[in-house]
Amino acid sequence: MSKTEKQKMLAGEYYNAGDAEIQADQASAREWMERYNLTAGLANDQRQDMLRERFGAVGEGAFIRPPFHCDYGYNVKIGRGALMNFGCVILDVVEVEIGDMTQIGPGVQILTADHPRDPALRAQGLEFGRPIRIGKNVWIGGGALIMPGVTVGDDALIGAGAVVTRDVPPGVTVAGNPARALKHRGDERR
């Protein structure tokens, strides 16, 4: 039996984003975002209830300040006490995991969506995704970009505006474009 385009998408394989089922999922996510982005006056527990409607998992005390944007939402897992500030974007064509107590600054983009390097495949409208995993107690500065397939280890720091194209080991501070290691946390001499 052949896979549906959505099954291919979720598996990280080439898929056609114009597929009717995928388009319906995106329309549903847009409707949810319209409602969520009007919740500035709601208590956090009410906002958490809305996140649980859409996300794959939501830890206790997780907090996302609107406006917030995503492709689907159901591929996002956000840990206990995690915070995403204003204007964040998650392109979640495959799984995005955000660990407990992670803090994400305003305007951060977490991008699992990718495109073929072969122009003939791109011309066919094919896309694919690579999962992103962000560990526990990570701090991501405002405007950073986390690119497809990246893993950020526990206790890492990502500088504001960094473009993270490679994995970040636990406890390491990175900054720049492309992001490069600056020093290990606790080693202020480097």
TrEMBL record:
Record field: transmembrane: none
Cross-referenced Gene3D superfamilies: Hexapeptide repeat proteins
Species classification: Bacteria, Pseudomonadati, Pseudomonadota, Betaproteobacteria, Burkholderiales
EC number: 2.3.1.-
SMART domains linked: Mac
Designated name of the protein: Sugar O-acetyltransferase
Family to which this protein belongs: Belongs to the transferase hexapeptide repeat family.
UniProt domain Maltose/galactoside acetyltransferase: residue ranges: 6-60
Sample GO molecular function, one term: acyltransferase activity
Stretches assigned to coiled coil: none
Keyword field: Acyltransferase, Repeat, Transferase
UniProt xrefs under Pfam families: Hexapep, Mac
